[in-house]
Amino acid sequence: MAETLWIPKFLLIALVLIPFRVNSQCEFRFNRRNKVFEFNLASSVKNHPHGALSEDGFYRVEANSTVLWFQLCDMLIFNHDPPRCVGCQDCGGPSHCGTSCSALLSENVRGYDVCTSLGHASSSKVDVIDKEDPGKGIIVKMLAGSSNPNCSLSVSVICQKNKVDGPLTLTKSGTCDYATELRHPSGCAVAISGHGSGWGWFSTLLIIILCLFGAYLLGGSLYRYFSLGIRGIEVIPNSDFWVTVPHRIQSCFGSLFQRFRGSSHGQQASYSRVN
Fold first, then answer.
1. What residue ranges are annotated as transmembrane (predicted)?
2. Which of 111, 127, 148, 157 is the most exposed place for a label (fewest CB within 10 A)?
């Protein structure tokens, strides 16, 4: 009995775990004019195994007396040249400045380098730069959150297929909103047709379940054949259960039919009494 009940549990676990696949903040999909544009800044591309993510753990751009460090879709990692500024309480603290956020800014205020957290990976939002021309690239906006609600960083990842440029410029708008840009092959979209050339999530889920089920039957049959010495139809795991499946399906449909028929007769009888 325990062996028979294992199969529904097996399929249930697959159904529960598959939707919780690794969902990167760097993934984005945009529909436009019967086409689907897919971006993944963390996927490997030619000459860039980490995608648009910095292999050093951070990007650095400087303008006037302002220095910006950021990492796309992940936390900053400083294996060398860490930030040296005061005010890192919400981004790793004074001894680990910059290690708990995705973007950190240093400004010289009255002779002191003062830090400001501009964003976290968990609060990043991704969108296309130009909805009329989705292939141009995407923009990643990082929000500082409750600590600095008026601060943010927008990084434009512009499609450039052959090489990487930037970040070179840093602009400021409003009170504490900064922007920079990066030209990178990862900013180029993969465009697929929106009329069924790609697999839908239900089809993918169904194929995965069928593959897992087939692997279970094959593995179980080989084990029972070679290790237990079982031959014939009994070599199939839970063969008694599978033999009863057609009867169970028939009984289920029969029960539904009887209920539907009984409901229809009840409605007819009620209508006759009213007339």
1. 198-218
2. 111
pTM, full prediction: 0.60
Q: What per-residue confidence (pLDDT) applies to 267? A: 53
Residue 35's SS3 state is: strand
Distance in angstroms (rounded) separating the CA atoms of residues 223 and 215 = 12
Strands (E), the chain: 27-32, 35-40, 59-63, 66-70, 103-109, 112-119, 125-128, 137-143, 151-159, 171-173, 176-184, 190-193
Residue 11 tokens read as 């399929």
Of 94, 137, 143, give the one whose Cα is nearest residue 115: 94
- What's the number of CA atoms in the CB half-sphere (13 Å) around residue 147? 18
Spell out a b/e string for 118-155, using b for 16 or more CB atoms within 10 Å of the CB, else e. Answer: bbbbeebebebbeeeebbbbbbbbbbbbeebeebbbbb
Helical packing angle, 201-226 and 2-17, nearest 10°: 150
In the chain the first and final C-alpha atoms are separated, in Å, by 54
- For the domain 27-193, what is the CATH code? 2.70.130.10
The pLDDT value recorded for residue 200 is 63
